[in-house]
Amino acid sequence: MYKCYLCNYEGEMKIKSNVNGSNILLCPNCTLEFMYPQTSDEELSKIYSNKNYPTCNFDNGIEENPMTLMKRKTFNRILKKILPYCSNGNLLDIGCSSGLLLEEAKLLGFEPYGMEISEYASGIAKKRIGNDRIHNGILETSNFNKNFFNVITMIDVIEHVKNPIEILKNVKNILNNTGGVHFDNYS
């Protein structure tokens, strides 16, 4: 018997896969896929502080390679889904990694901002986008102004968050009244 972190459904769930001893579960009620048991704060700190953090082992922020080019194309496709609804303004990418999506957003006319838990990855993003535009940490410790963002993206993020409802409440506070949130799980 499991409990979904998003919709609070309690009951049996399909085990989609197993990663390092933790099951990836599929909630039959809301279709959220999440890790159970969730990674401890201590384990997360180890993962995200390492230079071998998975999304950065291919991107040093200096030279392009087939993987960064593929990621750029993917992010460009995601951003083009947003353009019919919002084509400029302040965009926050929560979980921005090394800032590739943010660079693509800037090319399309957005003012890019990012938030990344990995100090190593956020360091690369800061070089790409600017120190004042990247927050290294979690949303609860950021100082983004209320109603500041037109668009907030969360690409491959929501399934990693311990309390999705709480993060969505915080997102609502910094999103302006006509803004929108885009979730994507492309991997």
Describe the structure.
With 187 residues, this protein is of the alpha/beta class. The protein has five helices and ten strands; from the N terminus they run E-E-E-E-E-H-H-E-H-E-H-E-E-H-E. The chain has helices at residues 41-49, 66-82, 100-107, 119-129, 164-174; strands at residues 2-3, 10-11, 14-19, 22-26, 33-36, 89-94, 110-116, 134-136, 149-155, 175-184. It has a five-stranded parallel beta sheet. Strands 3-4-5 form a three-stranded antiparallel beta sheet, with no helix packed on it. Helix 2 (66-82) crosses helix 3 (100-107). It starts with a strand and ends with a strand. The mean pLDDT is 89.
Structure characteristics:
about 30% strand; 5-stranded parallel beta sheet; about 190 residues; globular; alpha/beta; 5 helices; single chain; about 30% helix
Give the topology, please.
Elements: E1 2-3, E2 10-11, E3 14-19, E4 22-26, E5 33-36, H1 41-49, H2 66-82, E6 89-94, H3 100-107, E7 110-116, H4 119-129, E8 134-136, E9 149-155, H5 164-174, E10 175-184
Helix pairs in contact: 2-3
Short description:
The chain is of the alpha/beta class and 187 residues long. The protein is 30% helix and 28% strand.
Rounded to an integer in angstroms, the radius of gyration calculated over CA atoms is: 17 Å
Major beta-sheet overview: 5 strands, parallel
Q: Report the total helices.
A: 5
**How are strands sequenced across the largest beta sheet?**
8-7-6-9-10
Query: What is the structural class?
Result: alpha/beta
The N- and C-terminal alpha carbons lie at a distance of 27 Å
Task: Count all strands and give the number.
Answer: 10
The overall pLDDT, averaged over residues, is 89
Shape: globular
Q: Please provide the ordered H/E string of secondary-structure elements.
A: EEEEEHHEHEHEEHE
- The fraction of residues assigned to DSSP E strands is 25-35%
Pick out the low-confidence regions: none
Helix percentage: 25-40%
